[in-house]
Amino acid sequence: MVSESSAQLIRDKDLWVDGTGGATLVVLIHIKERPNTASKYEASLEVCKGAINHRVTVYPELLDNESDPEIALSDLYRNKLLPEGNDAQTKLPLPRKHLQLSLIKAVDQLTFQDEKTD
Question: Could you tell me the residue ranges of all domains in the chain?
Answer without folding.
Answer: 6-117
